Amino acid sequence: MGEEATEYFSKDFEWEEVRKQVENNSSYSHHFLPFEPSSSSSLSNDSKAWESFHNRHSTGKFFKERRYLLKEFPELLHCDEHSKVLEVGCGNGSTVLPILRGNQGVVVYACDCSSEALERAKEMISTCDKDSYNQRFHPFVCNFSQNRFPNWMICNYCRDSSMNKSIKCIAGHSENAKTDSVESSYLKQSQCCIGGVDFVTLIFTLSAVESQSMPAAIMECISTLKPGGLLLFRDYGLYDMTMLRFDPNKRVGFREYMRSDGTRSYFFSLDTVRELFLSAGFIELELEYCCVKSVNRRKGKTMHRVWVHGKFQKPI
């Protein structure tokens, strides 16, 4: 991912071309067969699988800094000073670093289900030898597909006030708050929350979430955004070459696959992404496929990569 953004994310081919090629190729037919989940299937321990994954790739060489990020999402570069960004599923910090470097005014909160990944992220930020980076970088452990974001990020009153204009919230406190409630006691002790964030970034994160948990995970994202805030989305698209490499026995759902290490990957169509985010209450601003030819010069192979790019806004 070290290529220049203009090269890395240009429109090299049309998605419809790939769709026709794939669907007319009998060797890929197993990807389109009906999938009946096992009656004994249950939620997998994705956190444990990703913890092991980051342990194996502790050097950080597996991930490269996403230098294209600010060109694809210039809102992060031109936002107001002291804007707050929540990077969900930050991994080793490959998304966090270009944000901190590109905008000296933003504060980045970054979570991951893997404590090992967060350690790598902190190491990456520390090696930049920029005190301002460390001061504006706040990592914490959270599996957003299974748990709510912590109350210090957005308390229950701020969650309600962001969805209900009749509740007036001052410094994060509702004027209608009951003094005898558990939440009121928490707010007094912690001096409330940060009041939510201006941006949420979901960069190759949602595809790692079990499909049945995606709606709740997206609802959690919209709840922590301030009214008018943006969710910036990037993930694997339908018919990406990595999807086509999966064997039939790796399917664990419709367009959903499990790797041998226990980590999963889902491949999104535009319709699926649209339905997920609009059902959560988001407004669609941008949604499209990014289709890029990646050339492996050493092996002489051309690979067709497909991603989904999206921008969604929380209603004001």
Automatic annotation (TrEMBL):
<dbReference type="InterPro" id="IPR029063">
    <property type="entry name" value="SAM-dependent_MTases_sf"/>
</dbReference>
<dbReference type="Pfam" id="PF13489">
    <property type="entry name" value="Methyltransf_23"/>
</dbReference>
<comment type="similarity">
    <text>Belongs to the methyltransferase superfamily. METL family.</text>
</comment>
<dbReference type="GO" id="GO:0032259">
    <property type="term" value="P:methylation"/>
</dbReference>
<dbReference type="InterPro" id="IPR026113">
    <property type="entry name" value="METTL2/6/8-like"/>
</dbReference>
<protein>
    <recommendedName>
        <fullName>tRNA N(3)-methylcytidine methyltransferase</fullName>
        <ecNumber>2.1.1.-</ecNumber>
    </recommendedName>
</protein>
<comment type="function">
    <text>S-adenosyl-L-methionine-dependent methyltransferase.</text>
</comment>
<keyword id="KW-0489">Methyltransferase</keyword>
<keyword id="KW-0808">Transferase</keyword>
<dbReference type="GO" id="GO:0008173">
    <property type="term" value="F:RNA methyltransferase activity"/>
</dbReference>
<dbReference type="GO" id="GO:0008757">
    <property type="term" value="F:S-adenosylmethionine-dependent methyltransferase activity"/>
</dbReference>
